[in-house]
Amino acid sequence: PAISELDRASYVLFDDPFVELEGASRRAAYDEFRLRHSKFEGTFIVATDSSCDAEAVSDRIGVLHEGSLRQCGSPSEILDSPKDKFVAEFFGQPEINMLPGILEKDGQAMLIGNQTISLCGRIDEIFCRDIWVGVRPEKIQLLREGNGWRGRIVSTMRHGDSILIKLIVENLPLRVLTDPTQEFTEGELVNVRIRAEDYLVFDDKGIRLEPL
After folding, report:
1. Residue 4 in this model has a pLDDT that exceeds 60
2. What's the whole-number mean pLDDT along residues 40-54?
3. Which of 2, 58, 68, 134 could pair with 200 in a Cys bridge, judged by C-beta atoms 3.0 to 4.6 Å apart?
4. Percentages helix, strand, coil for the chain, rounded to the nearest 5?
């Protein structure tokens, strides 16, 4: 609708407005959408099943799944502090790494593969023993020297302005997003470094467990 028509409304609902667009056309439509919203005093509501569209144009996102509101927050809150495993896996490109793990007895560490990893705080052991551990690809650092997990690079490919690297660590697949200036090659052995605060821990039902 024209801006003059929008001025008479408090809310405008859009049903998948970007669904037929791709590439540069889609990105241009995002810019146009944000420009039109800046000239409108009311609220734009976008219904979409595209996490990319939601992240690109939203100030706040409400995540509906199986008839319930799973989470509501800003795009950064949805990405960095997902309430459950579904939200964590639905948002973010490339997809979050989700690894099986075991919560150690004191609740201050977890076992992934053969590696014991300290948590940023303590998780009450009454919640569970079997856990899922999420790490976003952009939160992982690859090093040629130093300590950390040892992994072998399987493939490298361009991902937007970054490089997406796939590797095997502890017999588990891992996706890492790196700067193009870092030149890694297929078959190379590297060390994997992840900060304790960048692990997202979920119980066996998929509910996020916050350290105490």
Report:
1. no
2. 90
3. 134
4. 20, 40, 40
